[in-house]
Amino acid sequence: MAIIVIDGEEMEVADGSPIADACEDAGVPLGCRAGLCGSCVITIEEGMENLEDLTSEEEDMGLGESQRLACQAVIRSGKVIASY
Fold it and tell me: Where does residue 49 rank: exposed (0-12), middle (13-18), buried (19+ CB within 10 A)?
């Protein structure tokens, strides 16, 4: 099991799974869930290496190097600490 920590709230998610539901449970607003609106941008404080590579939607959004879209990010394993 992987661990995602959003603004201090720690949740377990299955290895290789999207983090969208866990982020939404932690209060991150997910608008379109398709990587188009940008409402779910989170800042990765630790564990970027535990996430899959950027999706094309994230690349098109032009995010900063420590930012991801919660609706698009997938955690491989390990722990990711993020803030909204």
Answer: exposed
Task: Report how many domains make up the chain.
Answer: 1
What would the pLDDT profile of 24-55 be if each residue is shown by its tens digit?
999 999 999 999 999 999 999 999 999 999 99
Q: What was the pLDDT predicted at 37?
A: 95
CATH of the domain at 59: 3.10.20.30
- Kindly report the pTM of this predicted structure: 0.94
3-state secondary structure the chain: CEEEEECCEEEEECCCEECHHHHHHCCCCCCCCCCCCCCCEEEEEECHHHECCCCHHHHHHCCCCCEEECCCCEECCCEEEEEC
C-alpha torsion 42→25→27→38, nearest 10: 40
Residues of the domain holding 6 = 2-83
